[in-house]
Amino acid sequence: MERGEAAPSAAEEKGEEEDDLGYRLFPDRNKKPQSFLVRSLFTFHNKCQLMLRMTLDTNPYAQLLLDAMKQSGCTVFNDRHFSCENCDGCVSGGFDSATSQIVLCQNNIRHQSHMNRVVTHELIHAFDHCRAHVDWFKNVKHLACSEIRAANLSGDCTLMNEIARFKFGLKGHHQTCVRDRAIRSILAVRKVSKETAEKAVDEVFDACFNDLEPFGRIPHSKTDAKRAYRDFQNRDRYNANL
For residue 104, what is the enclosing H or E element? Predict the structure, then answer.
């Protein structure tokens, strides 16, 4: 299980306990699905579904990724590939590569802007899963690469988000944010040491940070994302006429 935004695990040193691949953060993954009537009674679930629909219909980050995945032969369907569930208190979302499903933590996502960011982050993992042979569970470098790309391209490290976290910096701050968040993500879902996570991120950082597909740029704002989406659509039209 690959996750979106989460605090690092308290146990950063690798122990003898078997790695559960992050599924402990998503307890509803192992429960029997609830009936529609039961789910409809829960306000969190209804709100999550409404915010998800708003993201998919209006957010340029998500719209670009959905088009790119469709072009790559991995069409995303709302009912099949998204699941609003209750999660551990430190996590907002995750990508379950075993089922190709994005988990949205309905008990932790309270605002539309947060939903936009989580959906984008997890769609980047889904896009990577679609276009490449990612070994999520055994190759920590593969996981590190996708986490770097997700932090870099999803808006996780925009200036406004960093200010909201009371983190300030000038030269190289975006890269620092991307590196730190990628390391935290690995530690949240894998029983590896901090040193192992840092080494994996550092070894692939340059290549993965500069892999800007499908955006073609780092979208530092919604305006940037709209431009990237427009350019992506125009690129598709150009390629179709070749």
Answer: strand 101-105
Q: Which domain holds residue 89?
A: 21-133
Question: What's the total number of domains in the chain?
Answer: 2
CB neighbour list of residue 131: distance below 8 Å, 6 or more residues apart? 72, 213
User: Which residues are designated catalytic?
Assistant: 122
Phi, psi of 214 (to 5 degrees): -95, 10
pTM given for the model: 0.81
Query: How far, in Å, are 42, 98, 102 from residue 36 at the CA level?
Result: 10, 24, 19
Q: Residue 101: left if φ>0, alpha if ψ -120 to 50, beta else—which one?
A: beta
Strand partners, 85: 105
pLDDT, one tens digit per residue, over 23-34 is: 777 776 666 665
For residue 197, the tally of other CB atoms under 10 A from its CB is 24
The 10s digit of each residue's pLDDT in 48-63 is 999 999 999 999 999 9
> Do residues 149 and 127 share a domain?
no
In 3D, which of 175, 164, 162 has the Cα closest to residue 205? Answer: 175
